[in-house]
Amino acid sequence: MALFRITKPQELAASLSLPLYSSRVSAGFPSPADDFIERSLDLNEFLIKHPASTFFAWAQGESLKGIGIHDGDLLIVDRAAERQQGVVVVAAIDGELTCKILDLRGGKLLAANPDYPPIDLRGREDLLVEGVVIYSIRKHTR
Amino acid sequence: MLALVDCNSCYASCEQIFRPDLRNRPVVVLSNNDGCIIARSKQAKQLGIPDLDPYFKQETLLKRHKVTVFSANFRLYGDVSAQVMANLSGFSPRVEQYSIDEMFLDLQGINEDMNDYGSRIRDCIWRHVRMPVGVGIAPSKTLTKLANYAAKKIKTSNVAVLDTPYKWQWLQKRLPVNQVWGIGRRLTCRLEQLGIRTAYDLACADPKWVRRFTSVNVEKTIEELNGQPCLELEEVTAPKKEIFVTRSFSKRVERLDDLLAHISRYTAAAAEKLRVQNSYCQSLYVFAHTSRFNDNYYSNSTVMPLPYPTSDSSLMIRFAREAMKKLYKPCYRYSKCGMGLLDLRDRGFYQSDMFLAEQSPRSDALMTMLDKVNRRYGRDTLTFGAEGLTGRWTMKQQRLSPAYTSAWHELPLIHCR
Questions:
Q1: CB-based contact (8 Å) between B393 and chain A?
Q2: What's the complex ipTM?
Q3: Over the range B164-177, which residues count as b (16 or more CB within 10 Å of their CB) and which as e?
Q4: What are phi and psi of B362, to 5 degrees?
């Protein structure tokens, strides 16, 4: 039984949103500014550009902490995002989904950990690169 | 021109998306209750594993070839399908989703070379969703089905364009008539009596003459086979006219109480689907039977009219239970039961009758709340007492993959090292 309901990327329109009021709430006379409710803020809309090519995943391991990705962070991975120099990508290496840094100029996938050698990318980019990590989300409270 | 895009080995491919280790490997997916093989990856097909065969019969072969076996994870397949369809919708302003893994696209006004366009569609779906698809392009729906067949069986590129009579006739001559869309087993027999064996025979037949022995649909099929589109794209999916929920039991059931609990559960599930499409139901169908393979075979069904058109689970459960009590005979070991909501009508068009009872606003409010809670906190958070507390939806799913797309704690893990 699923304990949570996840708003999937493709369901943006039906997602929960928080209204943003331009005035403070008062108990008495209704504020005339309430006629100017701007719009609702939707985290999905902010975080996900391409709902039809995006998935969520958990980061496992600390090797990318140097660039701010920690164990247990939520990753938002977009398969359609532009693969620019230096972005963090999810790659399928030896049958495992692994975070790497994309070095387009050198034609390589770099690991943050020196124990893992760079992987030659030339001619195999589409085979290896699954998508780009566009956001990572971490919890700062216990 | 039209395109038909469909997912290759859809369910097996879905299982490979978050498991790159399984790509290019034999994978099969089993039906509900792990009964039959319902999907095979390309490599599994090459091993000679038959489609729709009982799992237990193939178990040794599967083990010998180290085939990875999955229980059906329909939640995952539904989510993947939604992403595939959303991507496909970007390739044409007019589309028709034909099934969970097939979509028709209207390519009118697209000036690109059709082979190139088809390849772009194929590449996009692979890159954005990691789903391999076949693309068939032709002037009519029936011909796109043939083109799609060619895309999968003949072309290594998975894209086939049948844009001239020469091309589609070449294929039609090599295709038995039962491979034509809409020509089922009975029609195949009928056509064989008329001397029509291949798709080409049918395409060359006189439509009016064939119609005399078959139906107007076959006449349309003949036109379509000759590149004359007769079947329109259906952009809006009509709400279902009937909703069925049926299950085979993993263990035989003998007691009436257990059957009542099952039928209550199925009714609750069907009623939820009914409310999703905003319809009312006017009568119920309930059946139960024992296994056909046992000597002591018993099967019965009944239809119960409802007092007024309704979408209220509790009312429908009450009547479904009444129906089951009528059907039930003791001393049988039941293997399957199920129910259907019949005679559905759109709530938007429903006119109330001042002399008849109708669904109260209170029960509407209750059902809305019930659905909200169950959608937010998971199915079965709120249930009816009649559904019983034990054995809820006990499906045999021993090889279920994680809910990669629908449960936070089951999302895919990405190694950082």
A1: no
A2: 0.77
A3: eeebbbebbeebeb
A4: -60, -45
CB B199 within 8 A of CB B172: yes
Helix extents (H) in B184-248? 185-193, 199-204, 207-213, 216-225
User: What are the catalytic residues of A?
Assistant: 63, 100
Token pair belonging to A120: 């030659």
Beta strand A119-120 with A108-110 is: antiparallel
Chain A contact probe: residue of B15, B276, B414 with most A CBs at under 10 A = B414
Per-residue pLDDT tens listing for chain A (142 residues) = 344 445 555 554 445 445 455 555 556 666 666 666 566 888 999 999 999 999 999 999 988 888 889 999 999 999 999 999 999 999 999 899 999 999 999 999 998 878 888 889 887 877 789 999 999 999 998 7
* 8 A C-beta contact, residue B105 and residue B91: yes
| Distance in angstroms between the alpha carbons of the first and the last residue of chain B | 49
Q: Give residue B249's identity as a one-letter amino acid code.
A: F
B16 to A92, B366, B380: CA distances (angstroms): 12, 41, 29
The label of the residue with tokens 């044409």 reads: B92
